[in-house]
Structure prediction request, 317 residues.
Amino acid sequence: MKFFKPTLTAMTIAAALSAPLTASAGPTVGLDITGTGNYTTYADLWTNVTDTGLATGFIPGITVGPGAAAPYLTELRSQMVIGTMSNSNIPAIVTPGGLNTTFEISKVVRFQELVDAQTPTSAHFALPPSQSAAMDVDPLHAGVQNIAIYFDRITDGVGSSRAVPGNGGDTVRCYGTGSTSTGCGTSPGDTDGDGIIIMSGHLVFNDASFTASGTVGTGSFDSRFMIDYVDPAYLDIVTGSIFQDKVTGTTNVPSFFQPTMMWDGATPTTVPFLKVDSSQSFAAVAVPEPGTLAIMGLGIAGLAMGSRRKGQSANLS
Prediction:
């Protein structure tokens, strides 16, 4: 009795799945500091001033791996202010005038990491299967948003709303103060009434490592987010594309700042604050070509037919 062998079908699907999701060349994000949709600056790389980070739930000194402790979850928080903007198509620094003097773009990040390997002096962090709802930093939009970016006009003197990483609760405007789509209103510390969420997204990739020597440590990270929300009054993003926000950089202990808490009130438990130097780049990720999708469809149909033939053959034997 002959049985259908789906070898060719499996090879077809494998070939289709192996086709890369290519990124389009030189996508840029337009910025309008007036909030009227008149974009004057286009950039695809935002560099950040020195940031503050905090890992909670991390267990120093243990060993994770075969024959030792099982992988476990930690939480990473960071807050930062955009420093410069670059456009790789020119290439040139295109930082708009007034950045961090008359206005600022601040960013908050919070997500879970999986410690999948650890020694007493080093650790590796990967992406867990899902993110807890407690990691959401944008309550205005559906799903767990792990990154939120704010536009804020700076007011000098009393009531200045300037975001200072690691400077205590609500130092990144709006967070934890009842965010609205039109801004923060006139809450204490933000008397100019802005602090508007202009972008948010969810984590889709994370790979990080850290090595310590006594009270000093260094690390690196690569975190990527799919952008779910953009305010078109402030940002211009190529339509029809899935935008990816890639944040890379280094971490160091001790921190450059001497904060007492993060923007959301979190304080260190067993680990100190981190100094985080990073930049974020934007890319448009192309979906598979129609031909590739058709091949995948034929392959899946072939598998289904093969299973059906195998079942019929078994019934006849």
Summary: The longest helix spans residues 290-316. DSSP finds two helices and 14 strands in the chain.
